[in-house]
TrEMBL record:
Record carries keyword Lyase: no
Function: Negatively regulates transcription of bacterial ribonucleotide reductase nrd genes and operons by binding to NrdR-boxes.
Record-given protein name: Transcriptional repressor NrdR
Domain ATP-cone: 49-139
Pfam families: ATP-cone, Zn_ribbon_NrdR
Family: Belongs to the NrdR family.
Source organism phylogeny: Bacteria, Pseudomonadati, Pseudomonadota, Betaproteobacteria, Burkholderiales
Length: 162
């Protein structure tokens, strides 16, 4: 790396430190010409696929937009910010792990739905009803049935013990 002061191409690393949380590496460098020191930071580059909207336009992934979707669905619901943050992380992990350069907007919608389903059933139905813009009442009923049916194993069969 060249010196930012005199543009000399020969600089030496004199110190390397890893940040406490391991998130970046900090290096002190010294110019072999003017002997001034400067610092560089090395961080992993986190890239998300571009989002392709229904009309074909591509937009950059935007975390605040995604958070907005969660907030809207979870309005006045008893879900902590920590849990919303975790759900956001899950969606982002999945997006990154795809390794794709671009994804359709509906994929994001599906990922958000999957997280909301785990977080809060009311929020899930809210989001799903807007997002899927149900074409008929049966479709809506099936999704409500899906989230309101009792969990397996907890069902009372009504049978009496011998
Ligand atoms: Zn220099």
């Amino acid at each position: 790396m060249k010196c930012p002061f005199c543009n000399h191409p020969d600089t030496q690393v004199v110190e390397t430190r890893v940040a406490e949380d391991g998130g970046f590496i900090r290096r002190r460098r010294q110019c072999g010409h003017c002997e001034k020191r400067f610092t560089t930071y090395e961080r992993p580059e986190v890239s998300f696929p571009a989002i392709v909207k229904k009309d074909g336009r591509r937009i950059d992934y935007d975390r605040s937009r995604l958070r907005g979707s969660f907030s809207l669905a979870l309005r006045k619901r008893p879900v902590s910010i920590d849990k919303v943050d975790m759900a956001l992380e899950h969606v982002e992990d999945k997006l990154r792990s795809l390794g794709a350069r671009e994804v359709q907007t509906h994929l994001i919608g599906e990922l958000v739905m999957a997280e909301l389903q785990k977080l809060d059933k009311v929020a899930y139905i809210r989001y799903a009803s807007v997002y899927r813009s149900f074409e008929d009442i049966d479709q809506f009923k099936s999704i409500v049935d899906e989230v309101t049916k009792p969990a397996a194993g907890k069902k009372d069969t009504g049978k009496k013990k011998p």
